[in-house]
């Protein structure tokens, strides 16, 4: 038996798919039945929940409010089910993790692999989101935990663990800079640089450092994509300025080197594991938290011993 009414189930499906037809296909129910329940719900609430458009169904302001509440109700029920499973000692289940694109190449795969090895019964559902919108998505019940870069202070968002990643220059392993433990900005101006462009946040940071140091590098190329910048470095086009997080996968494979930039004015990138303080963490979620903490500690120790030089 589904704990929610058919109206709410149908409403959520239509809101998610933005179409009665697609919702009907997903639920394997006649579209006329879904439409009938939606109309009955609108009559009961005395307000339209959708705008009927030629291209599909769009939520009204009232519909948006109901959608946000309904998602939270579903998430709360899922939390309750997990807590009951905890009481039963069940070690299987799912945990929803929100993360930014920057973590998809190294950190998150390491976390998923670690969970699979130590807790094979736990399925980690990874949802990649725009970093700026992760906090709100977490509060709306779309995740159990979230990894976020340079998190803003938000009410009800609690930081469980955090670590910092240095900023610096990426170069081939055989490059002269790769022999250094740290470098200063002036040292790197003798080499062609692949300049980061907007919308990369690192572009603003690098521009500020260049203006503050009153230096101008020889420009080899410009790119607004991290993977393109790394590919150009690997091809020998030049060096580039990124965080150690951006190049973590390539450094671990020995394909590229990362050299931290020294200087009191050089900022760091902060990675935080956060959760919604209004929701209780289940045993399974705590296991994911512990694995994330261990991976963060591992990277912190590696950074202390070899400056992530690879």
TrEMBL record:
Fetch the InterPro entries from UniProt.
HTH-type_LysR_regulators, LysR_HTH_N, LysR_subst-bd, WH-like_DNA-bd_sf, WH_DNA-bd_sf
Q: Which residues form a coiled coil?
A: none
For this protein, the record's Gene3D superfamilies field holds: 3.40.190.290, Winged helix-like DNA-binding domain superfamily/Winged helix DNA-binding domain (1.10.10.10)
Among SUPFAM superfamilies, the record links this protein to: Periplasmic binding protein-like II, Winged helix' DNA-binding domain
**Keywords linked to the UniProt accession:** DNA-binding, Transcription, Transcription regulation
**Pfam families named in the record:** HTH_1 (PF00126), LysR_substrate (PF03466)
Q: Where is the HTH lysR-type domain?
A: 8-60
What family does the database annotate?
Belongs to the LysR transcriptional regulatory family.
User: What is this protein's record name?
Assistant: LysR family transcriptional regulator
């Amino acid at each position: 038996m589904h704990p929610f009414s058919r109206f709410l189930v149908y409403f959520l499906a239509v809101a998610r798919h933005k179409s009665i037809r697609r919702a009907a296909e997903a639920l394997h129910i006649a579209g006329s039945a879904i439409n009938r329940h939606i109309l009955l719900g609108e009559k009961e609430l005395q307000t339209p929940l959708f705008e009927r458009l030629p291209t599909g169904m769009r939520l009204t302001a009232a519909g948006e409010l109901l959608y946000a509440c309904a998602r939270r109700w579903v998430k709360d029920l899922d939390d309750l089910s997990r807590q009951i499973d905890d009481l039963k000692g069940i070690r299987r289940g799912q945990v929803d993790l929100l993360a930014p694109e920057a973590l998809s190449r190294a950190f998150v795969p390491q976390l998923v692999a670690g969970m699979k090895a130590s807790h094979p019964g736990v399925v980690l559902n990874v949802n990649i989101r725009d970093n700026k919108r992760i906090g709100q998505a977490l509060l709306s019940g779309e995740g159990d935990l979230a990894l976020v870069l340079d998190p803003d202070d938000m009410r009800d968002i609690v930081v469980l663990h955090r670590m910092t990643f240095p900023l610096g220059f990426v170069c081939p392993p055989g490059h002269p800079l790769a022999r250094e433990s740290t470098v200063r900005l002036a040292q790197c101006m003798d080499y062609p640089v692949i300049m980061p462009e907007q919308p990369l946040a690192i572009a603003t940071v690098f521009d500020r450092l260049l203006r503050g140091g009153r230096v101008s590098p020889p420009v080899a190329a410009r790119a607004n994509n991290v993977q393109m910048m790394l590919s150009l470095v690997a091809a020998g086009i030049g060096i580039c300025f990124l965080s150690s997080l951006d190049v973590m996968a390539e450094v671990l494979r020995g394909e590229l080197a990362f050299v931290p930039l020294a200087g009191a004015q050089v900022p760091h990138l902060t990675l935080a594991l956060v959760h919604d303080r209004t929701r209780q963490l289940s045993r399974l979620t705590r296991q994911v938290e512990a694995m994330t903490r261990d991976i963060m500690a591992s990277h912190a120790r590696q950074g202390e011993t070899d400056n992530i030089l690879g």
